[in-house]
Amino acid sequence: MALIDELLKEFKEKFGDEGDIRCYFAPGRVNLIGEHTDYNGGHVFPCALSMGNYAVARKRDDKIVRWFNATYPNDGVQEADITKLAPNDNGIWYDYQQGVIWEFEKHGYHVPSGYDMVMASDMPAGSGLSASASIEEVAAVILRDLFEIDMTMVDCAKMGQLSENEYNGMNCGIMDQFASAMGKKDCAIFLDTATLKYDYVPLNLKNEKIVITNSKVKHSLAGSAYNDRRRESETALSDLQKVVDIQTLGDLDEATFDKYADAIADDTCRKRAHHAVYENQRTIKAVDALKKGDLEAFGKLMNESHVSLRDDYEVSCKELDILAAEAWKIPGVIGSRMTGGGFGGCTVSIVKEDAVENFKETIAKNYKEQTGLDCEFYIADASEGARRL
Ligand code: GLA
């Protein structure tokens, strides 16, 4: 049975089968290039996946929500009063849902009543593929649709990001929520995070696959280190602003950065800014190469992105470095890099179709030998964004 049909059944068993019951989906994402640029005013290039969070919902007449997540059945049915929500940093699935309601209200998107909901995910959690953004965006489309709220999907992305920042205490940029809300089949989204201007770029991969490799590790410093990187980038920016007229690190090209880099007092902050500036320029170049059909150039830039994340931004880890380095050696691999926030999670690789089997076998074997761990593979299928089904 398809997951959504199972959820529908579960919903009716738990909450009854009367009334207007609606189904929704919001995807996770994989970022092809442009990492840790989204809070630095740079570009990103993610696509929405076919994996994500499914939900079944029906409005209620009072202010209560009753939610059940079949992925975490031990949590039971969670009940809350939507007039009494309070920010916290627990990071549990219902906190991400609650945060979106809270943020909607804060921005004048009135949520008149609660709703009953059953949800579940078909994607690996904690793997850097944005399961949390997918929960936020499924919450946003539920509210928008159930209560006929007049807002765009870009607004849904913004509410998701702000809810994560302000309700859940995670200072993320907008990439993940934007990709989940705005995904398009067979395309990646070239997004300028400074202006939110975006362009759908067809992937046109005729003989290649996008292979995601899950390292199956998530190091505990991920959240705090993320917020540290943001602060270090901001310090670098304010040092630079004393000598050059810029709003964000994304305003600089490589030559201008090199010219003024000495204005950044702290060595670590200078390295962070070097990554942010060069990664943004790499992303622009990579998209240009893809549009011209030059996949080799795209792949090379992916590899350079990994090196910069490893050495300058220092958000990789031993396991991701092994996965990338092993991938680079395999014939038919066009490019490979860590994807997402880092400190574990996944790599993304572009691999020639006829090399995929060998890629999986070789990586699985060598990764196991070097780490003792079993990695997992998914073929990414660029898909539509959050929606009512
Ligand atoms: C996480 C954040 C995003 C982005 C990436 C790194 O996924 O949620 O906003 O900063 O890390 O590119």
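^ alpha-D-galactopyranose complex. The two ends are 16 Å apart (CA to CA). The chain is about 40% helix and 25% strand.
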